Predict the 3D structure of the following.
Amino acid sequence: MTAVMTEMRKVTTFLPASLVDAALGASGLSLTETLRAALRHYNHHAASQRLLAARGKVAFELDWRALRGKDDAR
């Protein structure tokens, strides 16, 4: 799945070579693609943590059967 990127930002940073080498070896991708994947992973993880923190704090009154149109009226 490729995200639509409308704006790009050039970044210059100093990273430990061993960390970069390990990430490149694990991903098998270019440096740019490896960094993009790492940032997507970080953002996904952060969003998941926010959702987990909300567990039990939101009440839903929806039934999955009704949402899928599987309401058995037998």
About this structure: The mean pLDDT is 88. The radius of gyration is 20 Å.
